[in-house]
Fold:
Amino acid sequence: MNIHGETVGYDYLSRINSTIRKTIQLVQSDKIVLDDFTSNVERFAGKETQKNEEKYIHSVEDYHRLVNYLEEKLDYETTVIYHVLYIIAKTGMRYGEASDITDDDTKLEDHYLYTHRRYNTATWGAESKNDTPYEQYQ
Structure:
């Protein structure tokens, strides 16, 4: 735990410990003898928790700096994540909506993106957002 704690923050380390503890309790409920090594663990994180003022965009200048950074990183051959983040920043779409856009959903010559599906990370697939027609972003 402490080795992993050198690279993560305290909150994340606590969640890992809690998940391991719940797993051990589940195994023990099935009458499997397993020592609960998480019960008296002291968690020492090597990474400081990020301050609230560092987590959010606080000004229009910060927003423009973020958008400019993403524009510089747009390279479809390397990764699509900067494209998804750029679309989110420019349109206000949610992650599931932006990550499920296809070529059929775009009218780039008219500067339109249509969204009628969202990517669901729970089922690892696309699903219809609702029964209404396309929402459009310009």
About this structure: The mean pLDDT is 79. The chain is about 40% helix and 10% strand. The two ends are 48 Å apart (CA to CA). The beta strands are 106-107, 112-115, 117-120, 125-128, 135-137.
